[in-house]
Records
---
Amino acid sequence: MTDIINIDTPAPTFSDFGLHPSILQAVSETGYTTPTPIQAQAMPMVMDGRDVMGAAQTGTGKTAAFTLPILHRLMQFANTSASPARHPVRALILTPTRELADQVAESVTTYAKSTPLRSTVVFGGVDIGPQREALRRGCEILIATPGRLLDHVEQKNVNLSQVGILVLDEADRMLDMGFLPDLDRIVRLLPAKRQGLLFSATFSNEIRKLGRSYLTAPAEIEVAARNATADTVSQIAYPLAGNDKRAAVVHLVKSRGFNQVIVFSNTKIGTSRLARELVRDGVKAESIHGDKSQLDRMKALEAFKAGELEVLVATDVAARGLDVAGVPCVINYDLPYNAEDYVHRIGRTGRAGNTGEAIAFFAPEEERYLLDIEKLIKTKIPRGQLALPASSSSSSSSSRRVPAGGRGERRSYSSTAPAKPVDEFFYKPYVPSSSTGKTDAVRSKSVATSTKKSVGILLGGR
Ligand code: AMP
């Protein structure tokens, strides 16, 4: 049987958890003051060695929710010996994508920096050699994508017989991506007596089944309602002809002065092409998709995180697990065919309590996807009218046109001080969902109505 835990109890402080002082020190250096709801609920249970199933979107602080107590529990094994034998893998964290693995590894390194505990990350798409060497040196915490981990197992680079803690992060994505057989193979290599933690954006029947087979009497923690969209994300949809969409991206970026926008496109080719064209339009843009080398993907991601890009054009898989603080806006250039992907996409903004905007473009033939999305999130997405500068597209469309300030060409956009936004929507401060007006479709941008709890969600890739 599982316990259902309520999230209405007051949040404790990090020092209430009894974390090892070296870990508490690292937490205070990050500047976090208050545990997030998932942290407040999960940490005491993970500290106690219980199995936990957590339904939480990325952006809720779930990585720290499992990492901090795991590090605390492993401190009993911490040692400074150089011998690999003294550093067996004791905690295994599996993630669906390389990007997520990399991000989790970064968090583990941050929180473990004042301890002698070692961690390593392994994922596909990069040279296996350095990973082999790192594994052979020994590490208490291993973060891995399933496929690459099995490659290492086959090459006998890693021994999993002392794993006492297993984490399945974004388990729903792992199932979506067909990792179940790999997970089964991996779990069979682990000791039967172990602590199991499973995190997933949603608790579908499949996830519950997975929980039953890999976990023992897990506590269930749910901090978000299924398929709602984050309260911190305002949404709007603009009807646009297909060939006006690019001009609309340029316009939004330049008129709003955005410098970290993720633009989602449905195809790898479309993603590359759009990024190239945006660069020609004077927008600092890069693309990230599955056909790019891991190195190129990481370079683009780093440039984006460093604030060097105005736009990152991404496919769903490539963006899975992206955790970039402060992304102000996500644009759905193409609406996703799968409505759930919309929720995952817009979960890239409005993270960790920040507000964000999710803008969708839809050509007439795409409206049915918008209706599917609205059905899934049980919310009507306000429709707006985007006023494009008269020169910024080759075709007529349903969008309104205004003069481009007399300068004619598309490249007349200046990237210095943001131009005055054309749409009055842009003058409005963010209005929390509970107080939005119902009559003004544009202003009632805080879509997730007050009855909805945040969900965010995430992404995946091998
Ligand atoms: P996650 O859901 O683990 O991807 O975390 C989302 C973001 O929230 C990360 O950028 C974390 O650094 C940040 N974060 C995690 N815990 C806290 C906290 N207690 N207070 C503020 N930010 C946090």
Note: The chain is about 35% helix and 15% strand.
---
Amino acid sequence: MGKPTLAVWKFASCDGCQLTLLDCEDELLALAGEITIAHFLEASSAVVPGPYDVSLVEGSITTPADERRIHEIREQSRVLVAIGACATAGGIQALRNFADVREFTSVVYARPEYIDTLATSTPASEHVRVDFELRGCPIDRGQLLETLCALLAGREPATPRTSVCTE
Ligand code: SF4
């Protein structure tokens, strides 16, 4: 049997949560011996086609293309983990949810008609089934490593399943 495969995907985000994974350095090297990192464009242009055992999803869904892509990723992933405030709650981009995004694009872009965007910024879970969520901005390195090790070993991660916030 081959090594389990890990894929990392970016949507609208600052890349900070992916950097948390890269910052794991020693642990990531050890992990890399046990798994195939099949898709992680922040670290390598090499891409192994799916399906994938574990997908980490960073960023919020903000464009029609994002909507299509998150469904494709879900279909390709045995376990999907949303990482960070952008992927779990819409992130700072979700401020647009309380305003008219067309007004913003008309102010920011010289040719707003070329901008194909959604009226809202939403978490992955509003579009597809999400198996685990890691909260934080950025995510906690210890929780990320625990989640990856547990999932790749076939056990339940020992991480919080709910937010510390009650609202
Ligand atoms: Fe960046 Fe924070 Fe979004 Fe992570 S949750 S991608 S650190 S803005």
Note: The chain has a mean pLDDT of 92.
